[in-house]
Amino acid sequence: MKNMLPWLILGLSLRLVLMPVTLHPDFRAVNFAADIIVHKGQILDFYNYLSRQPRTDPLVKLYGDGLFIYPPLAYLTHALFNFFLSPLYPHSAFNTLISDIGQLRSDPGLPFLLLLLKLPYLLADILCLLLIYRLLPDKLKISGSLLWIFNPVNIYVSYMIGQFDIFIALFLLLAVYLSKRKSLLAAVCIGLAAGFKPLPLFFLPLLPGPKLKNIIVGLLTYLVIIIPYLASSGFRQYALLAGLSDKIVYAKIMVSGSQFIPLFVLGLVLIYWWQWLKPGDLSLSGWFSALLLLFYSVTHFHPQWFVWVTPFLLLLYIRNPRLKFPTLIIMLSYLIIILGFEPSLHLGLFGINFSFFDWMNRFYPAGTAISIARGILAASGLFLVSQIRHPDSD
Known about the structure:
It is a single chain. It is built from 20 helices and two strands. Strands 1-2 form a two-stranded antiparallel sheet. It is an all-alpha fold. It is 60% helix and 2% strand.
């Protein structure tokens, strides 16, 4: 690790430069909920907070009732940091962040506030680096760690748009780390990852060891997290499935007027059968990558979700450099897809209102171009999975 000190300092400096100057509107929700939990004491009832306010309340008019759409850990984690760090917040800037983000860039307290609010992601990022360092063989530790330190997807997601998906990547990595020795603890980690967004529950059948026990332990972990909130109508209505249920069946092949074959389910079950019959074909990182690349290929995924797969692509690539080209093509396709989103997810992060989608439309139908990029990502992901047979163990 001593040889990496200059690179660690450079990577940290890059993060510290980006944290105070980039802002996405979605950053408000988790920090608003954290403030409600800590300063209004609504640990179990924050999902209903907005619905119980007068309809004339400015925050109700701004957000509606369905602002909090994720499972509890997404908000409780931020509440923990809020508890310790909120005395340091520039409170004028924090209040403006929640109530009038359009005026926020003129507040002198904004840079320090953003730095404090994004610190949780820095901690998770460091823990991911340590796990990657432990998972790699000695001769690859330095190069693999450097790839993570300068991982553009993580830097973009965690420090620019300020999304908490790095925690999901962390618990999935921890599951891989624990899987060889304590598969049930790995299942607990999957359940904890699902406490942020439910998709990781699909990983449970891929863990080594007794599958039924793994599934039961992972589901029980997730249930322990959500059971205290099942009495909340806001949680049941807005957060229980976190909007994923529609996405995973949207891409489909129609077989009658009302029935269809959902492509995600088709691919998922094929992966399960493949892993059941030939578990040694891929490492656990490979199985996780296969499932995630399937998910990105057949859903309209949000840019921050892509950080989930980056540690596993790194682990696969660093052991097998011939995967360099398809991995780069996947990353390039991801970049094109990002540019197709609204400006707030790219140049808007710096306060620049420029739409790449509208710009592309001047030369070629932007929707078609981005759809082609999605097709290239799907094909490259399928090819990559086909090339990682019989890898070194995690």
